[in-house]
Write a structure and sequence with these properties.
It holds the Pfam family Nitroreductase. Helix content is 43%, strand content 10%. With 286 residues, it is an alpha+beta fold. Strands 1-2-4-3 form a 4-stranded antiparallel β-sheet, sandwiched between helices.
Amino acid sequence: MNQAKIRSRIELEGIDLPTHIMNETLDVLTSHESVRGFQNMPIPEEALQAILTSARSAPTSSNLQAYSIIVVQDDERKARLAELSGNQAFILEAPVFLVFCADIYRLKYITQRQGYRFAADTLEMFLLASVDAALALQNALVAAESMGMAAVPVGSIRNHPAAVASELGFPEGVFALAGLAVGIEREGVRRGVKPRLPERVTVHKEQYSTAQMDEGLAAYDETMIGRRTYDGRRVSMAGEPERVGVEYGWTEHSARRCTRPETIAASASLRENLKQVLEQLGFAIR
């Protein structure tokens, strides 16, 4: 089967779902592919409104709505954000770049305005706001894809959080969690739905189980090696010779990346200073 033509995980994994179960929503969800190339074509204002309304309809913890969305369409600002996000050209190509933020500024403001002392400077509040923002992003992504557009989340917006905060005019208590580039894809940028870890590795019934983990990891390695996914992308181990007898699949690639955090987000300083920067931006991690 030609992987480049596979547009659905259901097809890729040979999952048999009856017709009365399948619907357009499931088709969109299981056909997601991160697209990093966009046409020079604006998206209709009505489509952007639909995306934003869908994002704002996401679940939110205790209805606190501890997130904000920055809509960036100015080319010069997109160029600066692209540079701050690892020089990724597709951010500038996309007609719209959405920045999803964990936002406790608004909650601090209303607490103080109502005459109280804000006492929610906790790790829990940071996580709550981050989850709220992530759920909004996922809704926006699905909405865009449901209308035939392409989208890709951008975690590298966190590479330089203080600079991004300055560029976007954040008050204290706002942090750019992730971006979302949205637009009409360029011809030929899709490569087909990427295989995921087998269900038996990531889905557990009733309690966490490692009973089938090694078997599932081996199967996934075989799949990714067969696709030549890591050709030219091997993570160097600081001049160490290649390990004899170890095939370079997902497990070896991911294990190496976890020994070199800068290969995960392209910014070593992010790994070292994020807690300090978050505190400077008005979050407490305690």
